[in-house]
């Protein structure tokens, strides 16, 4: 019985990988990690963001605030040129944080473009057209603060595309309104682990 137990122990011992190999891997990874942290410019994940493409089902098209609803009496019904109700939305968000050292590492730039496409009239006409409507964007500069706070200065602007660059009929509400040019100063608080995982240690 003892011989069998000794044989089993010998087999188990032979099957366990040496600990020294794991230590060698760790010692190899540490210089690479230290090198990434010691960089002054372009640390790991200094550019980060996302891209999102959405489709709005019929009777759920986003209203960009360009066309009146219901239409003006002399707009032309289904023949109106003001059909700025989006079927497709292409949205992106990017952050740039090129510095990894000095207090300037807390600075970052951000850019948030939104493109809308479609040709629809609520309750009158629905289509799968990808006619361009508007290019909406926000951009600015931010600074990381303690306790997951950020200070941001954001400029928002919209440029209408295609035929929406000009007046398109009696239902056209114009280029003013919620999709205009403005600048805001914001304080953002992130919680629950939300944030930039690849950014340099902030505080």
What's the arrangement of secondary structure elements?
Elements: H1 2-15, H2 19-38, E1 47-55, E2 88-96, E3 107-117, E4 132-145, E5 149-160, E6 182-189
Antiparallel strand pairs: 1-2, 2-3, 3-4, 4-5, 5-6
Task: Provide structural commentary.
Strands 1-2-3-4-5-6 form a six-stranded antiparallel sheet, with no helix packed on it. The protein is elongated. Helices cover 17% and strands 31% of the residues. The chain is of the alpha+beta class and 203 residues long.
Please state how the strands of the largest beta sheet are arranged side by side. Answer: 1-2-3-4-5-6
Approximate strand percentage: 25-35%
Class from secondary-structure proportions:
alpha+beta
Spatial separation of the terminal alpha carbons: 61 Å
pLDDT average, as an integer?
Answer: 82
Helix content: 10-25%
Total E-strand runs: 6
**How many domain modules?**
2
Counting DSSP H or I runs of 4 or more residues, the number of helices is 2
| Residue runs with pLDDT of under 50 for 5 or more positions | 11-17, 19-25
In angstroms, what is the radius of gyration? 28 Å
Task: Give structural attributes.
2 domains; alpha+beta; 2 helices; 203 residues; single chain; six-stranded antiparallel beta sheet
């Amino acid at each position: 019985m003892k011989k069998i137990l000794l044989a089993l122990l010998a087999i188990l011992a032979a099957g366990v990988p040496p600990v020294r190999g794991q230590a060698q891997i760790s010692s190899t990874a540490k210089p690479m990690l230290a090198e990434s942290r010691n960089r002054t410019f372009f640390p790991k994940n200094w550019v980060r963001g996302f891209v999102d493409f959405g489709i709005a089902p019929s009777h759920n098209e986003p209203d960009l605030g360009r066309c009146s609803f219901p239409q003006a009496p002399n707009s032309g019904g289904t023949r109106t040129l003001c059909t700025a109700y989006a079927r497709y939305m292409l949205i992106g968000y990017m952050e740039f944080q090129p510095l990894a050292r000095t207090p300037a590492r807390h600075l970052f730039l951000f850019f948030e473009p939104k493109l809308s496409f479609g040709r629809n009239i609520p309750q009158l006409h629905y289509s799968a057209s990808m006619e361009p409507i508007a290019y909406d964007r926000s951009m600015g500069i931010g600074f990381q603060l303690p306790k997951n706070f950020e200070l941001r200065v954001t400029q928002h602007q919209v440029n209408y595309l295609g035929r929406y660059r000009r007046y398109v009929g009696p239902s056209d509400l114009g280029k003013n309104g919620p999709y205009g040019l403005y600048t805001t100063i914001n304080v953002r608080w992130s919680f629950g682990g939300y944030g930039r995982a690849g950014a340099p240690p902030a505080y």
